[in-house]
Amino acid sequence: MPEHDLAPECNSFFDHAGVEMEVIPDGPGVPLGLQVVRSIELGIGGVYGTWGKAYDNSALPQLVTERLGRPLADNERLNLAELGFVDRHHVPILPRDECIEVEVCAGARFLSEAAQANGWQPSEVEAVLIGSSAPITEDYTQRIADKAGIPDDALKVSIHKACDGSVAGLNLALNPGLPALGRQAQNLAEALLGKKVLVGGIEGLSRFLYHSHDTQALQLFGTGAGVIGLIPGRTMRFLAGITDEIFDQEGLLQVAMSYPHSRAAAAGQSRIEVTQLSEHHFRVAGMQHEPDQTGEPVVMAGPMGMVKLFVRSGVAAVRSVYQVYRQRMGEIGMPDKDIAVVIAHHANLKINQLKAKHLEREGIHLSIPWLLSEFGNVSAASNMIAFLRQLPDLSQGDHVLFDGFGAGTYYDVLAVEV
Questions:
Q1: Percent of the chain residues topping a pLDDT of 90
Q2: What total of structural domains would you count in the chain?
Q3: Which DSSP category does 203 fall into?
Q4: Quick check: 12 and 374 in contact, CB under 8 A?
Q5: Which domain holds residue 412?
Q6: What is the CATH number of the domain that holds 205?
Q7: Is residue 7 part of a domain?
Q8: Where are the beta strands (DSSP E) in 154-236?
Q9: What's this model's pTM, rounded to 2 decimal places?
């Protein structure tokens, strides 16, 4: 596994070359930074970035103290650099209507810039699939699409499967083996073949944690977004993939569902509910183990609890897809072809390193670079940010494995050809 770069001189994302800066004029003014990435060779582009004030590891404890109303105890402080993070961004506490305005403005900018990174006008976009762990409004995807100028008859899919949301969206867009979405007779991947599609994760986690008392969550999570454009079957082609769910019975990661869900699932049945919100807007919502404490947005077990939650079943999901991938490569006469890179969710560096070690013990050697030091854990946004950062190093015909996982516990893993 490549060495990660966590140099102490690493500046805020806002200070990086090529980052376009603007201010969302709500509250005291919220800075927004966007980085556009495009590959002319692959015909794929997108945009990633964040909004809010930057807090490095030395400044973060003061913010956490303000949110908790007390200082962090020594045994509550995480070694954030060791976990892969040196910076993250937070929005000041704002009234709800201003929170909505900030996140809608930010989301619309990411959609508009992602479309243009692919050489499209927003009016040409035919589908938008957005993962969001804690949407500010039920119709968030519809709102940002409208504000970005995306046609009303373009398909919108809001995906709430915690950190797995954006890879779940990519799986829906590409994997013809998944069930039809809601009452649609046609499989979604078949319906989107050859169309102009935006897939991403947009996460206002700073706002979600306003009233959190979980010291880990306050230190780990940040605000961020990543959106890519693709034409299924043309600029990105499905090779192998699965979707899986293994309910977190122990409640090692408890998350309040800020989106509608019946909170009911029969034994042996999926905890994913698909709802048609309008003619062209669907919601895919996953049931979560919610905190017992009233009003608490998130409750996390210790670091070893997170490892227990995600590593064992996460390795099984990657192994399963990799085996199908190897079999397919043999069938099409390319037995020596392999995965160029793994784009994994950046929950924390130790989880990804441990997964890589477990896979290596089974003879599966995969490159899983660490690419998000300046963002913190940005949930569903992390895979798409990581992919865009890796995009300049990809070549036509490369095979990429997307590894998505999140609270619930939900897994989407798929191998694609770019």
A1: 88
A2: 1
A3: E
A4: yes
A5: 13-417
A6: 3.40.47.10
A7: no
A8: 155-160, 197-203, 224-230
A9: 0.96
